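Entry for the shared binder. Reason: the reviewer on the internal report wants the predicted structure included alongside the sequence.
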Amino acid sequence: MLKKKKFVILLKVCALIYASNLLSACGGGSESASVPIVLDAPIAYVKRPVQFDNNGDLVPIDITNPIEFHPGGDLYIRDRAASSSEERNVTSRFTGGMGDVKDVTFNDDGTKIVFAMRGPDIPNADPEDQPKWDIWEYEIATDTLSRVMPESVAQEHQDVSPSYLPTGQIIFTSTRQQGNKGILGNEGKSEFPGLTENFQQQALVLHRMNANGSSIIQLSYNQSHDLDPIVLSNGRILFSRWDNAGSNNAINLYSVNPDGTDLHLVYGAHSHDTGTNNSVIQFLQTAELSNGRIVSLLAPLNSQSGGGLLATIDINDYIDNTSPTFVNGGLTGPAQSNLVNNTILTDGSPSPGGLYSSAYPLNDGTNRFFVSWTPCRLENPSDGTIVACVDNLNNPNLVEAPPLFGLYIYDASDNTQAFVIKPQEGIMYTDIAAATPKSIPNYIPDRTTSTIPALDQALIDDEVGILNIRSVYDVDGIDAAPVGIDVVSDPGLTTADQRPARFLRIIKAVSIPDDEAIDGNRNTSLNNDAFGVSRAQGMREIIGYAPIEPDGSVKVKVPANVPLAISILDKTGKRISARHQNWIQVPKGDTLNCVGCHDHASGSPHGRPDGPPSIYTGGTSNGGYFPNTDPAGFWHDLGETMAEARTRLDPAALDLSVDIKFDDIWTDPAVRAPDASFSYLYSDLTTPSIPVSYPECQNQWSTKFPIVCRTVINYETHIHPLWSAARGGNECISCHNAANIANTQLDLTDGLNPATSREKAYEELLDEDILLDNTGQPVLIQDPDEPFLLDNNGNQVLDINGNPIPNLINVTIGPVFSTNGALASGTAFSMFEPGSGNAIHEGLLTPAELKLLAEWLDIGAQYYNDPFDVDPLRFIN
C-alpha cells in the first residue's frame, strides 16, 4: 500500500543542472530545478508505486529475488523523450493497474519492445497458484500487446529479462530449466526446476526461444540465478551470474555464445570491494557503450531502494578492477570509472549524490545516458516531514526518506543532468529504454558438426562433452610442479609416488526440489538437518574419476549440460586442491579446453580463455615419444599432452570410472621397473550398500539413459555401517561405545540424536562435543570471559559465606572429522593409513573404505546427497 506522508516545500532548491557544476546532492524534483530535455525518439519506461509493507515501512529490494512482485507497475511509452509528449500506458489493458512490469528492451529498428510482465494477484490463492512472470511484446505501430509464448506455456514457469538476438530470437532467464529436467529424467528422478543454492526459490537460468515462443532451450546451468542478459555488438551474451556455491556469494559478469557454448567469467570476481568506502557491491544491469566499455549498476545485494552507483567498465582489457587480461599485462587500471562525478554512496548510509537504479546509453556520440535517479532525502519519523540531505546529514533525528526516482538525461561530458519525466512523490520511474538508432550485433551461428570449430557427432550421441586439461601443474601461467613439469612428467626422473597430483574427481551439483516436488505436499518442507552439520556444499554427487597423467594432463568424457566441479586428488584419493566453487558446463559434442588451474586466492579468476598461454610445450615432434616412456606405448604429435596422445590411440581411456584405478602405462621397462598397479574398488567394500547408481557402472561408465552413472553417498546407508563392520574383534564400536565414552570421547553405536533425528555417531564425528571425565560426567572449568555468576544488574552472586560463585562451563572438544575434507581432518583420518604408526588404528580400515570415507568428507560430509533418499518421517516437516 502507499504510505501517506506529510510533505513540506524544500527551503533549499538544489539545481540539478548547471554549467560546469557538479550534480546536486539534494532536491525535491521541482520543475524549476532543471531544464527538460527533448529527444526525437520513442522512449519506454516502467512506472510503479513505491512499495510499503503493512507497517508503513519501505519494502527493501533484494536483487537475489528477481521475481519479486510490486503491484501497480505498468509499461509506458512516449513518442519523444519530452515531458510534453503524451504518456501512454500500454499494459494496463492486461494488468488493470495491479500487475507489474520490468526488463524493457527495444528491438534493433525500434519498432517493438520486449519485456517481462506479471498479472495481478489472485485473491486468497496460494503463492504457487498466483500468476507467473512471462515475456510479452508490444508493437508500437499497431498498438499490439501480446504474449510471446502461448499462455498455457507462459504460466508454467517464471520468465524475465528478455533481449532480442540478431536472428529475431529472444534470450531470457527462466525457472524452466528445460535441460536440467531432462537430466533428472535420465537419472530416473522426477523432473523439477531446482532451487537456488540458498534454497529460497527456483533458479532462473538462461534460455533461448524463437520469436513466436517455440523451441525453448536452456543455455546455462548455474545452480543460482543468471540475470539481465544483453547482446553485445560482437554477438555474445553478457549477463550477471550469482555465484553462490559453497562460500561464494557474489554476482559477477559472465559471457556465452547464443547457443550456450563457450560460457566463461568476464569480470568482477575480485572487484566486489569497489563500492564507496570499500563497501561490497555487485555487478548488475549492464549496457554496452559504443566504445566497447559497458555501463553497470554497482549495488549491494540488499538495499532499501535498489539503487546504487553507475560505473563504466573496460571488460575487454581487464578481468578485475586492477587486473588486466594477459595480453594487456602492462595496464594497471582501474577498469572501473564512476559514470557520475558526484558523491554516490553504496555502503547503506544516505547518499549525498542520490542513487541510480538504471542507465540506458544513447550511443549517439554525445556521451549522454537516460538514467533513473533519486535525490538524497531525509525524513523526520515523528511527523513525516521530508527535507534535503544538504545540511541535514548529521541530524540524528532524521532517517533516510523513501526514494523519488525520476527519469533524466545525464551528460557525462559536462556532468549535467536534466529531467525527462519529473518525479512524483510515491512513484518510481525505472527501466527506461529508447528507440535510438543502433547497429545490429554480429551474428554468431549455432555450433554444429559442420562449423569450425565443429561439434563431435559421436559425443552428441553419447550425450557427453570432453574436458581437456593441459596440465594441472600450470597454475595461472606458473609451473607449480614440485620439480617442474618436464621433470615430473619423465618416468625416468620421477616415480608415480613422487607426483602429487594423481587423480581427478568430477563432481556434480544435486538439484534441490521445492517442497511440493519432494512429496507432493505444498505444506511440508525439507528439514535442514537432512543436509548435515553444514549446508554450505548443498548435496553433491560424484560423476567419476580419471587418472592425471605424469605431465598433469587429463582428457575425459563428462556428461553434457550438467553443472560440474573438479578436484585434484593424491595417490590415496584425498583432495589436495581447494574446492572448485564455480560451476562449469560442457555442451553436447563440445570440448572444454583448460590450460591449467588457477589460484582464486591470488586474484586469478577461473575459466578465462584469454588467460596466460600454456607453459607446457607437450610433444616435441610428430610421431615422437615422451622421454623415458615405453616405445611400445603411446607416441605423440607436436604439442600433444600425454592425455591427448593416450586418448587418441586408446579412445576407451576417455571414459571416467566410478572407482580409482592406477596402471603405469608410461614407464619404459628398459629404464626402470614400472610403478605398481593399484585400485580402490567399491566392490571391495564389505558393508551392505555400494553408493553407485547402477551395478553396471562398476564395469563401464556411462551417462546415457538408462545407465546414468553417479556415486551418491548417504551417511546412514554408506558411512555409518563402517563403524560396525566385522574386523576380527577390532570393530570400531567395540571401543567407541557408550560404556567406554569416558575413555574414547566417541560413541559410534546406533541411535538417533532426538534433537536432529540424525545418527548420534554422525554428530559425534562432525560436531563439537562435550568432554567427559573418567566417570562419564562433563568436565567443567571456570569461564575465563565471565568467571563469576552475575545477577540481572551485573553484580556478582555470592554464596552463603559471602564469596562469589564461580561460573562453570563445559569443556568442549572439536569434531573428529572436518567437512572441509579428508586432509583437513588431520590425524583423525591419517591414523588409519599405512605408515601412520598408530598401533590401534593403522590398517583398521581397508583402502576401499578409506577411499569412500575420503570422498564423502571431500564433498562436504553431507547426511544425505539425494533429496529423494531422505527419510520423510524424520526430515520432512
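Summary line for the report: DSSP finds 14 helices and 47 strands in the chain.
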